Amino acid sequence: MTAQGFGLEHLGFEGLGGREIQMAEATPGARPRPLSPHVMHWRWHITMAASILTRVTGVGSYIGLLLVAGWALALASGEEAYETFTGLLGSIPGQVVLFGFTVSVFYHLAAGVRHLAWDLGMGYEKSAANASAWAAILFAIVASLAVWALFLLGAP
Amino acid sequence: MDGFRTPLGRARGLGSAKDGVGRFISERVTSVALVFLVIWGVRSALELSRTGYAGAVHWLGLPVNAALMVLLAVAGFLHMQTGMAVIVEDYIEKPTTKAALLLLNAFVCWGGLALTVVCLLKVALSVGGA
């Protein structure tokens, strides 16, 4: 029995015989032992992406609500300040930021509803969790495009 | 005597942390409220994108809009504060940096909330005959 048998070789564990490990690794056809998972080489799956997106869009919405605070401040500061502020939001970079805010808010909203369902004990099955992750992403895309279509087309 | 006990042994039998339930509930209550407030907020933003300054002032002069904007600000900033605190606690290990960032986050959120509510009310209450 060598250290390799414990799957600990990646920790530098040499135990009963480091030389044996080296020999074993050099043997062609030797079965590779599993390594402990690390975030940088973990296979991406949809629930993982959904979880990370929830945090990212939370930060996006954080910045977005500060923009809403800026809107309130501009409105309270008078017409000139308001025109300046809305002019910035209406510029191309401003609209890119606002589109990002829209996607962030809609994704975070859907992710929040997923979490509320989990709090009620629903949707824990692997298939349900995968489906709701995709649904949240799809909702964010469709809702954002719909809102921006309404904005650009001038509908109510 | 405690020096002879392991950390787990010391913690055993003490029950839960006896803290954090309020934050847990606050996160849930604000998220349920925000589901509705955010949808209303997006709809309102679309409406406000066409009104200009005078239209926006008139809009905020309507009591229902002012009340919902204040609720959006309160629920939003509270949710922001707890959410960002979780991120800081998860990723920042150094105690002084962690404390500084948590404090900054609290100041940004409570300051942002106070400023937003004052601005909303200033406009809402100064509109006559809406």
Q: What does this protein structure show overall?
A:
The complex is a heterodimer of chains A (156) and B (130). Helices cover 69% and strands 0% of the residues of chain A. Chain A is mainly α and 156 residues long. Chain A folds into 2 domains: 3-36, no CATH class; 41-153, 3 helical TM bundles of succinate and fumarate reductases, CATH 1.20.1300.10. In chain A, helix 2 packs antiparallel against helix 3 (79-90), helix 2 (46-76) runs parallel beside helix 5 and helix 4 packs antiparallel against helix 5 (126-153). Chain A starts with 17 loop residues before the first helix and ends with a helix. Chain B has 130 residues and is mainly alpha-helical. Chain B has one domain: 3 helical TM bundles of succinate and fumarate reductases (Up-down Bundle), CATH 1.20.1300. In chain B, helix 3 (52-61) crosses helix 5. The longest helix of chain B has 32 residues, at 95-126. Chain B is elongated, with a radius of gyration of 21 Å. The termini of chain B are far apart. The model of chain B has no long low-confidence stretch (mean pLDDT 93). The A-B interface holds A 55, 58-59, 61-62, 65-66, 68-69, 72-73, 75-76, 79, 82-83, 102, 105, 109, 112-113, 115-116, 119, 147, 150-151, 154, 156 and B 28, 31-32, 34-35, 38-39, 41-42, 46-47, 49-50, 53-54, 56-57, 60, 69, 72-73, 76-77, 80, 83-84, 87, 108, 112, 115-116, 118-120, 122-123.
